[in-house]
Amino acid sequence: MSAGARREAPGPLVEAAAALEEELRRLDATAAEASRLPLTSRRNLEKTVERIQEIGGLEERLGGRLAAVVQAVAALQERQRAVLDGLAARAEELRQRRASLDALLGEYRGLGEQARALTAAAQEVAGVPEPRDPVAVRTALGELGGRVEALAAAAERVSRDAREQRFEDVSEEAHGLRQALLAMRNRLGLAARA
After folding, report:
1. Given pLDDT bands bounded at 50, 70 and 90, which one contains residue 128?
2. CA distances (Å), origin 5, targets 2, 9, 12, 15
3. pTM (whole model) above 0.85
């Protein structure tokens, strides 16, 4: 134990056990004295009788001390049960929160995959060599813009759901994805008008 560390006071079980142990020591000492005294004088006979009577009182106190130990053990069991019940409740809360987070992250990952696919599709439309059919390009860019718009709305929903469920980091990431998608939509709109 470090020099600055404080010793905790003993708990009820330790106190009850120590009191029981002390009574047992008294019983042992009194019984030893009663057994050791030679029964050869009136004085020794009286002392032996006193010790045997004292043992009767010690037995009563021992019963009380033993009951205190049993009561302290029962209190410890109740405390343990309460702690374990609290941990079980926390584990269930953790399980539910993890399931909620996993669902949000699954949606977010799905949005990311769709965004990558839309980016690849936009690059493919932009990479068509000349001569291009301007109407077909505008139509393709308009369709892509609509898909990007829908994906941005989905990202906004995931951001809102994450915020409502108090997963701020996921909310911020989904919001960032939404912003990137809106920027992409604007670029597609400009390209379609060009």
Report:
1. low
2. 5, 13, 21, 21
3. no
